[in-house]
Amino acid sequence: VTTLGLNGGTFRSCLAGGGGKERVESDVQLGVSLGVAGTPTVYVNGILAGAAGFIPTFGQIKELVDQELKK
Q1: CA nearest 43: which of 26, 29, 60?
Q2: Nearest CA to 6 among 39, 24, 14?
Q3: What is the DSSP string of 1-43?
Q4: Tens digit of pLDDT for each residue in 12-45?
Q5: Are 35 and 18 contacting, i.e. CB atoms less than 8 angstroms apart?
Q6: What is the pLDDT of residues 42-63, one digit of tens each?
Q7: Burial, 49: exposed, middle or buried (Cβ in 10 Å; 0-12, 13-18, 19+)?
Q8: What SS3 state is found at 47?
């Protein structure tokens, strides 16, 4: 915690109080519904870049962006 420059007491209090828990759970459910298997996951105009569960390469992202720009 201190390595990140966080106030340890404030951080632990927030974590223990469940601050933001609903938002995190909502985001996780959204990711699951979209087929996100991990991070990072990159979508361009709703299209998954690369293969599910794998980190896309710059080339894969660029190719998808270029394809979408041609539409």
Answers
A1: 60
A2: 14
A3: -GGGT--HHHHHHHHHHTTTHHHHHHHHHHHHHTT--SSS--E
A4: 888 888 878 899 999 999 988 988 888 888 999 9
A5: no
A6: 999 989 898 877 888 999 999 9
A7: buried
A8: strand
Distance between CA 51 and CA 17 in Å, rounded? 37
**What is the rounded distance in angstroms from the CA atom of residue 36 to the CA atom of residue 30?**
9
Spatial CB neighbours of 49, under 8 Å, sequence gap ≥ 6: 42, 43, 56, 60, 61, 64
Q: How far apart are CA 47 and CA 41, in angstroms?
A: 11
**Tokens found for residue 24:** 């995190």
